[in-house]
Amino acid sequence: MRPSGRQLDQMRSISIETGVMRHAEGSCLIKMGDTHVLCSATIEDKAPSFLKNTGLGWVTAEYGMLPRATNSRTRREAAVGKQGGRTQEIQRLIGRSLRAGVDRSALGERQIVVDCDVLQADGGTRCASITGGWVALRLAINRLLKAGTITSDPIIDHVAAVSCGVYAGQPLLDLDYPEDSVAGTDGNFVMTGRGRLIEVQMSAEGASFSREEMLQLLDLAEIGSGLLVSAQKAAVE
């Protein structure tokens, strides 16, 4: 029995509210159970210097957690004076994942920055950030298309992410914090709307895992990704 009472292959409730920030070109508030992430996309008319005269655009991301997103207060990284290694790793993952769903030549020499701010954390914040970040990115690109700034849609496919793991010897979909904190195996799966893999992060937190267990988690991830893509489609239509 899962602590939440969910079935092994059951996602937490999914909610994506769009247009939650007045000034951002694209924004949404994604809720996956008690994990809530505010995502916004900002269009910059200039690409990074390393892409000058290449005709290619860029999508990047920044990630952060509010001090009381967790049970105890975490100091703002700005107050500490530097980003932690976890923050850097997660925002690079978000950026890589979103770029995989974009035709950068169709985007042109401009940059879109996706900001993901965790308001409340209960496991799976990086997955929620990727899923909600795609929605914010989609809405920002819709503005470029509507304005005629670009003529070809650079979005190749949906991008969504979900966590899976082995808890109490059972493979589970969409881990919340009580499960994630003690899971024997923990994995994050980033997938496209067509079911193709962008990135897989898996590690044995306790005992090692078998190939069969890895495939069981992949099967669960495909279920979860499909549900998340459906939520994305409903949010942007």
Descriptive notes:
With 237 residues, the chain is an alpha+beta fold. The chain has one domain (14-236): Ribosomal Protein S5, domain 2, CATH 3.30.230.70. 32% of the residues lie in helices and 29% in strands. The protein has helices at residues 77-80, 85-99, 104-107, 125-147, 177-180, 211-236, and strands at 14-18, 26-32, 35-44, 58-65, 111-120, 159-167, 170-173, 185-192, 197-204. The strands form 2 sheets. It has a 5-stranded mixed beta sheet with strand order 1-2-3-5-4. Strands 7-6-8-9 form a 4-stranded antiparallel beta sheet, sandwiched between helices. Strand 2 and strand 3 form a beta hairpin. Helix 2 packs across helix 4 and helix 4 packs parallel to helix 6. The longest helix is centred in the last third of the chain and has 26 residues, at 211-236. The radius of gyration is 18 Å and the shape is globular. It starts with 13 loop residues before the first strand and ends with a helix. The mean pLDDT is 96.
| CATH-defined topology | Ribosomal Protein S5, domain 2
* Distance, first to last CA: 37 Å
- What kind of sheet is the major sheet? 5 strands, mixed
Work out the strand percent: 25-35%
Query: CATH superfamily membership, which one?
Result: GHMP Kinase, N-terminal domain
Whole-number radius of gyration? Answer: 18 Å
Q: What's the total count of β strands?
A: 9
CATH hierarchy, class: Alpha Beta
SSE sequence, one letter per element = EEEEHHHEHEEHEEH
Low-confidence segments, ≥5 residues, pLDDT <50? none
Task: Sum up the structure in keywords.
29% strand, five-stranded mixed beta sheet, 237 residues, RNA-binding, globular, 6 helices, nucleotidyltransferase, tRNA-binding, four-stranded antiparallel beta sheet, Ribosomal Protein S5, domain 2, alpha+beta
